[in-house]
Design brief:
about 130 residues; 3-stranded antiparallel β-sheet; alpha+beta
Length: about 130
């Protein structure tokens, strides 16, 4: 399964995490928002569609960052992480999820297993030492 993931970073360097909706696997776990690619979609197209559907925003350019293969109990998922620094619109949690702007170490829990490596990448980029979550 191919998944586009948006790593939204605001002007203060904080990043957005959202909770998984109650009707999804790992409900209540915190993750970077995104979703599955549909047939014929690029990663950026899927990310643009998913973030509008889930959060009500329209993103600017999505900068490909890293790709990670993650083997969850329910599926083998290829996560395409893209950094996003620009968006328009008001955030609306359209799937009943919660949102939180975070820095390291993140204050929300539990963190989705596929999100943990991303926190490590942020720590490496930012020279952060210590637990990330």
């Amino acid at each position: 399964m191919e998944v586009a993931v948006g790593v939204l970073v605001d002007a203060d360097g904080r990043f957005l995490l959202t909770s998984r909706p109650d009707d999804k696997v790992y409900a209540g776990y915190w993750e970077f928002p995104g979703g599955k690619l549909e047939a014929g979609e690029s990663v950026e197209q899927a990310l643009r569609r998913e973030l509008h559907e889930e959060l009500g925003i329209t993103i600017g350019p999505a900068q490909p960052w890293k790709t990670e293969l993650f083997d969850y109990p329910h599926a083998l998922v290829r996560l395409h992480f893209c950094k996003v620094f620009e968006w328009a619109g008001e955030f609306e949690m359209r799937e009943g999820q919660r949102m939180a702007w975070q820095t390291l170490p993140v204050q929300v829990a539990p963190v989705l297993p596929g999100t943990v490596p991303v926190l490590g990448w942020f720590a490496a980029e930012r020279g952060f030492a210590g637990a990330t979550h």
